[in-house]
Amino acid sequence: MHKILRQRQVSEITGIGRAGLYNLTDPRNRSYDPTFPRPIKLGLRAVGYIEAEIMAWIDQQASGH
Predict the structure, then answer these.
(1) DSSP single-letter state for residue 64
(2) What's the whole-model pTM score?
(3) Helix (H) or strand (E) holding 12
(4) How many of the other CB atoms lie within 10 Å of CB of 18?
(5) Which of 1, 3, 26, 53 is a Cys-bridge partner for 37, taking CB atoms 3.0 to 4.6 Å apart?
(6) How remote is the C-alpha of 13 from its chain's centroid?
(7) What is the DSSP code string of 18-50?
(8) What's the rounded Cα separation, in Å, for the pair 42 and 63?
(9) Cβ pair 20, 60 in contact under 8 A
(10) What digits encode the pLDDT tens for the residues 23-61?
């Protein structure tokens, strides 16, 4: 079973603010990172991220790949 993290939790874990998270997932933004996990829709105005994907992305960043 996957654990879902809310945006605030992802910001706390990664140190990236809300706007930064939006920038990482927006292909039109120069800060776009295609390797950053895509958010999943939880409701009309709520998104979440799969914890394992966020942790894998952090590991990837730490290893320099």
Answers:
(1) T
(2) 0.90
(3) helix 7-14
(4) 11
(5) 53
(6) 10
(7) HHHHHHHH-TTSTT--TTSPPPEE-SSS-EEEE
(8) 31
(9) no
(10) 999 999 999 999 999 999 999 999 999 999 999 999 999
